[in-house]
Amino acid sequence: MKAKRIALSVLALALAAIGTAAFAQNVKITPLGTHPGELCDRDRAMIFEDPTGVRILYDAGQSVMGANDPRLGTVHVVLLSHAHTDHIGDRKIAGLNMGTCDKPETVSALPNSTTAEIAAAKNASLIMIRNMAFFLGKKIENIRGKPTGNCAEPGGAIAAVQAAPCLAPVELGGSKIVKAAGAANGVEIITVYASHDSTLTRDLLTDAQKKSLEADNVSVTLGAPSGYVVKFTNGLRVYLTGDTGLHGEMRTVVREFHRVNLAVINMGTNAIQSDAAAYAINELVRPASVILSHPNEGVTSGGVIRANTRAKAFIDQVKGRPVYLGISGRTLEFDGSGTCMAGGCY
Ligand SMILES: [Zn+2]
Ligand SMILES: [Zn+2]
């Protein structure tokens, strides 16, 4: 009887050890903004690192230095929610802390965009809506002097490390898996609906194309805008809203079907207002934790949230779950249940 009890407690200890090991498998999330230690107007870019080592760049935008930004490190996957300039990156920063948090100073990233520059330099897989992938594929070809092919998917997964940048085009609802060499499981990336637009600035077009469109003051739209659901190997399921107004799929597809437990929400006057954003989090998505990004205002000063910001109004209305600011250069770590485990949790 006693031996059996000892055996059981050994088993319990072993299970606890396995549990702890699994617990330590956090996803690391690092925002790359214009001003280290702050959350500023233009900040969108984020690096997600799965415990298996897969590294994903979400919406490079205007707050990075382009391909040579030392903060990027290895990038296996490039995601882009839609073609607007502040996401595709028609401009970039020349260095950190240029201009103010409210009005960062940027320089041109034409003719290629920060997204194309980075994907080309990092041999990344571009997982995004088809028309954007093809457009960026051409930009990458212009940079490298070689056509950009589609990503191979041996065994149904894209290998994290690629010899050249490649395209993994999807439509809304489409999904791709990216797997590190030797890993048991891959990271699943799914595009989801966003109530927005995906028109490209004429500045990124060829002169001939620009000319033909100028007469009518129109531009081209690169397919549907999207958000993403990213399912990491530790169980973390992140909803990247993209720019979007409120929509019912936040409840049905994102929460009920995908059961996300962390939301990265884009704020801003052309995305979602504070009260609508709080409703989306409290009533529709209901994640365990939230990260606030894309503020379109300087949110912090000395790393501390400013009063009278839309971000503050949003946070004050969110109930029952923590909201973390996407502070540039601060790495937050999340376990599989969407709980912040390190890097500034409170
Ligand atoms: Zn937009
Ligand atoms: Zn935007």
Topology:
Elements: H1 2-23, E1 27-31, E2 46-49, E3 55-58, E4 77-79, H2 85-88, E5 91-92, E6 107-108, H3 114-122, E7 125-129, H4 130-144, E8 158-159, E9 166-170, E10 175-179, E11 187-193, H5 207-214, E12 226-231, E13 237-240, H6 251-257, E14 262-266, H7 274-285, E15 289-293, E16 300-301, E17 304-305, H8 310-317, E18 323-325, E19 332-334, E20 340-342
Parallel strand pairs: 3-4, 4-7, 7-9, 8-10, 13-14, 14-15, 15-18
Antiparallel strand pairs: 1-2, 1-19, 2-3, 5-6, 10-11, 11-12, 12-13, 16-17, 19-20
Helix pairs in contact: 3-4, 6-7, 7-8
The site of one zinc ion has 4 residues, from loops.
Description:
The chain has an 8-stranded mixed beta sheet, covered by helices on one side. Strand 13, helix 6 and strand 14 form a beta-alpha-beta unit. It is built from 8 helices and 20 strands. The protein has a single domain (25-342), classed as Metallo-beta-lactamase, Chain A. The chain is α/β, with parallel strands linked by helices and 346 residues long. Helix content is 25%, strand content 22%. The longest helix has 22 residues, at 2-23. It starts with a helix and ends with a strand. It binds zinc ion (2 copies). The site of one zinc ion has 4 residues, from loops.
